[in-house]
Specification:
42% helix, alpha/beta
């Protein structure tokens, strides 16, 4: 038996859909060995990884943690109030409109009784009028949630690998040797093993929370996070991983050579036609990010699927020795090169991956930020994610389909194993 990976896409408040799908996985007894998370998927992935490492990946614990977060927290009021007094001097979080409103005394929920009068409030008003702010919200809410809920298990029960994608605002795109080199997306990977030193685990969790905060930072909505990642020669400004990430499935396969099954949850890949033209800043931003979210991941999905098809086709035409093993012959070497592989060894190093997408049949209602204004949408997302997860798992356990019937991308679709 091989191992299982779980890839979670971005999608803002449509991340609630992922929580429903994850509950379906837990009910079916499917425990991932590797999790790759992007944006909202990074937060959900951290919860999954935490529960798996603690030996608590059960439907009940998912209800108590992830689903509770999406249903009872992550409201507009949470976003506005939890950041007060949480800012370090000079941090970009202090330059959010949220913090400026705190300094002036502007309160959309009317919990403050008057506008503040003073030198600092005048400076804040000047900053707002001059456009000297980097985002709408600060990281206060995310910081509070993660510090209170994403805490290290007392003991690591099960090995777990978790990788988070972030985008560097200071990254570069250059033309080198007739090819374009983009240096924007980075992964930070965390591994936990039974018997690991608790102090080391605690240190990893502190760093993981910072990385997740950056990966969830939708531009203009949250500020970028300044930090220096492992292997980087200088600090960068990191934000939403969905802005530049292109190969999360490949990342999962790279992390563990025994992965042969990948569940891909695509909450916001399909984008429907809006009911009316966007006429506010937030609606325009919502539409832009809805179009971007999942675009790279779906391309990576098809790349892996097409590689599966090439592997099946090559196995049909390559010569085999009397024992049935693919022969190391000049003919096979030539065929592999003609098919686009570097060599026969390169082909033999490839493995067939069973891809199981969990994706809504039609676009989820609203934009990726709509759930913050309409909490009932988050309940719908969770229910739909659970339903689609159950359907996908059931379909994956049906009799194998022939190569010509492999799906491109359908809810509950499953590729044949070999």
């Amino acid at each position: 038996m091989g191992k299982t990976a779980l890839v979670l896409s971005g999608g803002g408040f449509k991340g609630a859909y992922e929580a429903g799908a994850i509950k379906a996985l837990a009910e079916a007894g499917i425990v991932p060995d590797v999790v790759v998370g992007i944006s909202a998927g990074a937060l959900n992935g951290a919860y999954v990884s935490n529960l798996v490492a603690a030996g608590e990946f059960t439907p009940q614990r998912i209800e108590e943690t992830m689903i509770h977060l999406w249903v009872n927290r992550a409201t507009l009021e949470d976003m506005f109030y939890t950041a007060e007094g949480e800012f370090a001097p000079g941090s970009m979080g202090a330059s959010s409109t949220q913090q400026i409103f705190h300094r002036i005394g502007i309160d959309p929920f009317k919990k403050l009784s008057w506008i503040k009068i003073g030198f600092d409030s005048l400076l804040a008003a000047r900053e707002f009028i001059g456009g000297r702010f980097t985002s709408i919200f600060s990281h206060g809410f995310l910081k509070d949630v993660m510090e209170s809920q994403l805490t290290p298990p007392e003991r690591v029960i099960r090995p777990m690998t978790f990788s988070v994608a972030v985008s560097n605002l200071l990254g570069t795109t250059t033309l080198e040797d007739s090819s374009i080199e983009a240096r924007h997306c980075h992964y930070e990977t965390f591994r936990w093993e039974p018997g690991q030193d608790p102090a080391q685990v605690k240190e990893q969790y502190a760093w993981m929370r910072s990385i997740i905060m950056a990966s969830c930072s939708v531009p203009l909505v949250y500020p970028p996070t300044k930090m220096q990642l492992q292997g980087q020669d200088k600090p960068g400004l990191y934000l939403d991983g969905a802005m530049t990430e292109s190969t999360p499935i490949d990342q999962a396969l790279h992390l563990d050579p025994e992965i042969d099954t990948v569940y891909v949850v695509l909450a916001a890949t399909m984008v429907g036609e809006p009911s009316r033209e966007p006429d506010t800043f937030l609606k325009v931003a919502t539409r832009v990010f809805s179009i971007i979210a999942g675009r790279y991941l779906i391309q990576n999905y098809h790349d892996v699927l097409h590689m599966n098809e090439r592997i099946l086709a090559m196995r049909e035409i390559l010569d085999r020795d009397p024992g049935g093993t693919i022969a190391r012959s000049p003919r096979n070497e030539t065929f592999c090169r003609a098919a686009g592989f570097r060599s026969l060894d390169d082909f033999l190093s490839k493995r067939y991956i069973s891809l199981i997408p969990i994706v809504p049949k039609s676009p989820l209602r609203g934009g990726i930020f709509s759930g913050i204004f309409y909490p009932e949408l988050k309940l719908m997302y969770i229910a739909q994610g659970y339903q689609d997860g159950v359907a996908a798992i059931a379909a994956s356990r049906q009799p194998l389909v022939e190569m010509g019937q492999l799906p491109l991308l359908e809810p509950g679709g499953v590729s044949a194993r070999v």
